[in-house]
Every structure is written in C-alpha cells, then in structure tokens.
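Translate structure to sequence.
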C-alpha cells in the first residue's frame, strides 16, 4: 500500500495519498470531514499537504472502513475508544502481507527452475559431497 522510499518526504499531495490507498481524492476529503483528528495542512489555495501522522491515521481509517467494512460512525468510535489496539492490528496485518509477498516471490523463483536445472544442481551438490581428496 505504501511506498517505502516516500517515507522520507515531509508532505504528500492529495493525489499521492489517494494513490497510496487506492481511493478517490473525494474519499479523502470526505474522511477529513468525518474524522476530526485528520487535519492535513492546507497550503495556498487550499491545497492539502498530508504529513506522515495523517497517513498513519488514514491507514487505520482505510483498514476499518474498506477492509473490515465498518461504517464511518463505527470506525470513528473504534478510533476514539480503542486506537492503540487497532493500530497494532493494522501493523501486524501489514507485516503479514509483506511476508506473504516475500514467500510468493520465493515460490515464483523456485517455480522458474526447470527440471534439468534441478538435476544439474543435485549432481553438483552430490558430486561435491561424495568427492574424496587426492
């Protein structure tokens, strides 16, 4: 969902944030009205500039509303009452998604081996182990 190299930026535009969460910009503006804690800085002509703290809160809102299917009032209440547990749960889920991607990459790399390559690898391994020094 989030680009790791963007973590060095201080401010993100609304289009960048919308792309991160795969939502429309209008959704972000709506959430801004519904969640008082979400307060991106507004530059000249009302241009929103999201900081990392805003993105962290959006991550929680997105999880509750889009992934868990909660209503806006329900998500607002959950963040008000139990924000820390929700934050921890989202962190764990993100880490599990990363692990899943890593494992899928490993599986794809292993699937790319041909039968001949596997046999050759076995011969090389077996040849090295059984060789006697002369």
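Result:
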């Amino acid at each position: 969902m989030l680009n790791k190299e963007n973590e060095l930026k201080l401010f993100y535009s609304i289009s960048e944030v919308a792309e991160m969460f795969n939502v429309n910009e209008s959704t972000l503006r709506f959430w801004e009205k519904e969640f008082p804690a979400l307060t991106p800085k507004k530059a000249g002509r009302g241009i929103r500039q999201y900081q990392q703290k805003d993105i962290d809160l959006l991550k929680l809102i997105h999880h509750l509303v889009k992934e868990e299917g909660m209503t806006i009032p329900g998500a607002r209440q959950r963040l008000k009452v139990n924000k820390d547990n929700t934050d921890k749960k989202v962190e764990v889920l993100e880490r599990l998604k990363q692990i899943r991607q890593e494992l899928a990459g490993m599986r794809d790399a292993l699937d790319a081996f041909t039968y001949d390559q596997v046999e050759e690898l076995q011969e090389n391994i077996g040849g090295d182990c059984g060789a006697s020094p002369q």
